[in-house]
Amino acid sequence: MKYSREEMVESVPQTGFFGHPKGLGILFFVEFWERFSYYGMRAILIYYMYDTIANGGLGMDKTTAASIGSMYGSLIFMTGIFGGWIADRLIGSRKALLYGATLIMLGHVAMSLPFGIPAFLASMFLIIVGSGLMKPNISNVVGGLYHKNDNRMDGGFVIFYMSVNMGAFLSPLVVGALQKNYNYHIGFLAAAIGMALALIVYVIFNRKSLGLVGVEPTHLLVGEEKKKYARNIGIAAVALIIIIAITLSMGILTFNTFSFVVTILGVALPIIYWTTMYRSKDVTNTERSRLLAYIPLFLTSVMFWVIQEQGANTLALFAAERTQLDLKPLLGIDYKIPAAFFQSLNPMFIVLLAPVLSALWVKLGKRNPTTPFKFTLGILFAGLSFLVMIVPLTQSGTQLINPLWLVLSFLLCVIGELCLSPTGSSVSVKLAPVAFNSQMLSLWFLSNATAQGLNAQFVKLIEPLGYTKYFMFIGAIAMTLFVIVLISNKWISKKMEGIH
């Protein structure tokens, strides 16, 4: 590394944003608009994919649309691993962040153009690669603004993650309204403009506000190692192009077969990651015990995200097809809720409830639930969020259901998310072997990639099963896992070797 951490931190103006380093304000702005663009696009994506060509959509069947939505989310989390590696070994976090933001903006621009499937595929590729470069590296730059012993760091991350939820809350409302009143492409254009704003502000202010943080790679590839990686990556790229060309010409490579590849990757990557750590000679017996404890926690996380991430496809479809969106029969108000608006419920509930749960954990003190029990609560509420949807479906028959049932489903899942998600990030760091400290967080993020890879197959069951049986099926898996993890709580705690 060209600069020490101390030199990088000292190069940053340490005040200028609510008592925090000035650069936090720039990163807050960039992340807000990046999340605005991502969640805004995602709020209408599934409707765009299955709506008729006459209405400005792509005319896909709903099952394919839901499966593609899950594949897209899974690949974004997978590419984050490579984005972190590229920053560490080749170009540094700042350049990775800049290139990623540019690709994301171009991806949204492509989606705003009325060129059908080719523009859609180009957009997906650009956003997946761009998010992989930006997602891990912007958080890394935030952490680099502070000295390791700076008490402001935790507060800085809280402020930073508020930008995520603010962007995620507002964007479905704005983009959903634009799509309803104009068309899909105007909605996608709003996402592109948001990302362009972030990029302009970053380019203008990043040097003065962020100093030397993330400018240089932390472990630059040089010499023979660089040649080896270049050769292997080149061979892999050529092989991939050949495989794609052959499978396309033979008619083998379809959305359906690609979804299976993504699912297999989603399952295989964490297994390879975990096995590499467990078998490493640099890992002690105590650390191996903790890695064993991590297995049920990881599986619980996967099942949680299976349900949570279906808010953007299964529940989005349900909102459009089976929910009473016209308020006139319900409240006498002449207004029809855009189905995309329901995507704002998750971030809204997180903003409202996060301080409540945080205060509760503090107040409980020594009675604060253990990590395994918080995971147990997380999967319990996630399972209930799907099972509760069975009630109105069995009572209403073929009639549209009250939108408050959908609100309740999102609320229950958010309670589970607040129990499991922050705890998962924390315990991943605590249980990490010393030799694999940063890789353990990568493994944690893969739980979401695995979940969405599985969802690419699960959502194919909606049509043959129907909503009632589908909610029952997924909910039953979650509740079965809830019982298993609850029974295993003591074993997990014992294997965690003193970590709580």
Q: Which strands sit side by side, in order, in the main sheet?
A: 1-2
Q: What's the alpha carbon Rg, rounded to whole Å?
A: 23 Å
The CATH level-2 architecture of the largest domain is identified as Up-down Bundle
**Helix/strand order:** HEEHHHHHHHHHHHHHHHHH
CATH class assignment of the largest domain: Mainly Alpha
Residues in helices, as a percent range:
over 70%
Global structural class: mainly alpha
Query: Taking all residues together, what is the mean pLDDT?
Result: 90
Gross morphology: globular
Report the sheet with the most strands, covering strand number, pairing sense and barrel closure: 2 strands, antiparallel
| CATH fold descriptor of the largest domain | Growth Hormone, Chain: A
Q: How many E-type strands?
A: 2
Count of separate DSSP helical elements? 18
Instruction: Return residue spans where pLDDT drops below 50 for at least 5 consecutive residues.
Output: none
The CATH homologous superfamily of the largest domain is named MFS general substrate transporter like domains
Termini separation (Å)? 35 Å
Strand content: under 5%
Family: Belongs to the major facilitator superfamily. Proton-dependent oligopeptide transporter (POT/PTR) (TC 2.A.17) family.
Membrane topology: Multi-pass membrane protein
Transmembrane segments: 70-87, 158-178, 184-205, 233-252, 258-279, 291-308, 340-362, 374-394, 400-420, 427-447, 467-487
Main location: membrane
